[in-house]
Structure formats: structure tokens, C-alpha cells
Design brief:
Blueprint (H helix, E strand, L loop, with lengths): L4 H22 L6 H17 L7 H19 L4 H29 L3 E3 L4 E3 L3 H30 L1 E8 L2 E9 L6 E2 L2 E6 L1 H8 L7 E7 L2 E15 L2 E9 L8 E3 L1 H66 L1
Parallel strand pairs: 4-10, 6-9
Antiparallel strand pairs: 1-2, 3-4, 3-8, 5-6, 6-10, 7-8, 8-9
Helix pairs in contact: 1-2, 1-4, 1-5, 2-3, 3-4, 4-5
Amino acid sequence: MIVYWEYAFLENALLDGLLLYLAGKCARRRVCIWRLCLAAALGGAFAVVFPLIALPVWAAYFVKVVSGVLICLIACTGGAKACLIAVSAFFAFTFALGGILTAAYSFFGIETADGTGFYVERAPVALVFAGAGIFVCAALAWLRALYRHRKIRQNLLECTLTAGTRTVRWTGFADSGNCLSFRGEPVCVLSAAAVFALFGASPPSVGRMEVGTVNGSAERPVFRIDEICVCGVRRSAYATVGDVGKGYQLILHTALLEECHERIFSAESMAAKDKGRRERRTLSLRKRGASAAAPARGGGGDARQTRSGRGRGDGQGEAR
């Protein structure tokens, strides 16, 4: 089998560039083009030179792992955590893409050859880059869905709602775009099932309001919530019916989020102040203990002198 080094360099450099781009996106770091190109070029050069070096199997895999870590560190920007995520994602995507291409070679009956720690194939360039392109598009879509789900999970809060004699405990979504108000009070958005569960089959409406969504504007009934508790903050509010996503039952108003954040901030500030007071109190106690220990040592010498003086006085009295 004849291997052309320029083709091997371009193919491996482009594949490494795609994998490094995915690793950077997985670490949620801005991709630096010149660093990415440099790392991809070094990866392509390593793929050309590596088969020419005779190494044991364990040493070959060790060198490949070290080279992968190095090109990730060159392409990645950020701290140690971001680099660790990028390196892990790079190897995970490399194994996944390698498995997909190997399955494609086996399916199409493409000639391959196994080396010591490397793999040589005679495959059409279009097949390799078509598979790599599909893999990159699927990986990017998966990453977007994963981070979207993570963002939603981070904005979910436990809420307790009370209306009349009914009290429910639900999960609310902290949406910064909900600025609805009715009679000067915040309005939360509930699903139809949540309205039925909280207010019953015939919920008493206190009015109607116009709600604008991406599908247009419509008038919706407004219901009174006697009390809503979010992060320990209790207040009254209104609710209307609307479209609510999966995984939560209501969309919270921004006013409730601001009060919740203020409470959390004040709690963190109080905790920091208490910690500072404890540290200062501990330091003052240490200082007082040290200052009290010094006179105690000096007082012990005085006491010995007093006892010795008394002894001499007693002896003199007995002599008289």
C-alpha cells in the first residue's frame, strides 16, 4: 500500500481540527482560530511522522495519548478545568469518530492495514469527510440540546402555592422575560392542568388580561394566588393560563426572582459577616490568651519570691 504524506497530513489535520473544535465547544470556550490551526497542523504532522518511528505497542499508545493532550492544551484557552474538559471531550469524540469510520470501512469493504498504534486505510476522501461532517453536525446538535437542558435545570426553583384551602408544591421556571402584571401585582403563568389542580374545575376569575406570545396576543383569565413561596420569600400574586414547557408547572415573574436573589444575597452577606466576626473573635481570644499568659509566667516568679521571702521571715522569727 502506497501512502502519500501530503494526503495523510491534510486528512489528519482537518480531522484533528474538527475534533478540537468540538472539544472547545464542549468546554464552552471561545475558539481561537490561529491556535486551532496550529494544533491541527501539529496533529497532522505527528500523524505523518509517527508511523516512521519504531516503538513498542505500549510506548506507541503512550506517545499518542501525550500528543493528543498537547494539541488540546495548545488549542484550548482557559483554566485547568476548561482544559481538562477539552482533553476528555477530545478523546471521547476521537474514539466515537474512529468507531464510526471503522464501521463504515467494514460496511463498504475498504482495504485497511493495522500498524503499531496506528491505522492505515485506502478510503475515498469524500467518504471520510462526509462521515466526519455528519458526526460534527450531530455532535454540535447534541451539545446544544445538552446545554439547553442544563440551563433549564439551573433555572428551576421549588415553589409552594396556596389558593383557598389548597396548597401545592411545584417546580417553577425562573424566566427573566416574564414581566406580566395585573393591578400592580406580578402574574405567573400556569399550565391548564396546574390551574385545574390549584383552583378546581371552575376556577374563580378576578379579571382578564392580554398576554402576548410568539403566536400572537390573546386575552387570558386571571386568578388570585393567596400566597406563593419561592426561596423562603412569601407574597401574594396573580396567575394566568398559558403554554408551559416540560419539567415544570409554572413560569415565575421577575419580581419574585429579584426578591429571591436579594434574600440569597443578604443571606450570603450575613454568612460572610458572621464568618468575619468569628475569625476576628478567634484572633482576639488568641491575643488575649497570649497577653494573659505572659503576666502569668511573670506572676509565677513573683509568687516564688514571695514564698521564699515568707520562708526567710519565718526563719528569722523562730531565731529570735
